[in-house]
Amino acid sequence: MKPLQKCPTPTLEALVDSAALAVFLDANVLIPQYLRAVFLDLAEAQLFLPFWSQTERKNARS
CB neighbours (10 Å) of residue 25? Predict the structure, then answer.
């Protein structure tokens, strides 16, 4: 079995080029409909990858 090799840390330029910039959306962004729409439209255009936690999802629903 081959030992695991350390992966190089990607540069910011590489992340932007690959459109794999991860963005955490908290409840303050998810609650107002207009902000949620803007951020999810930008994510759909593959400008970044949106992430949120179960806690943020629950906060946005309450």
Answer: 20
Torsion region of 46: left, alpha or beta (phi above 0 gives left; psi -120 to 50 gives alpha): left
pTM for the full predicted model: 0.57
Q: DSSP per residue over 2-62, as a string?
A: PPPPPPPPPPHHHHHHTT--EEE--HHHHSSHHHHHHHHHHHHTTS-EEE--HHHHHHHH-
| Residues with Cβ within 8 Å of residue 53, at least 6 apart in sequence | 24
Q: What is the pLDDT along the chain (62 residues), one digit of tens a residue?
A: 445 455 556 566 665 665 567 888 888 888 888 988 898 898 888 888 888 888 877 777 76
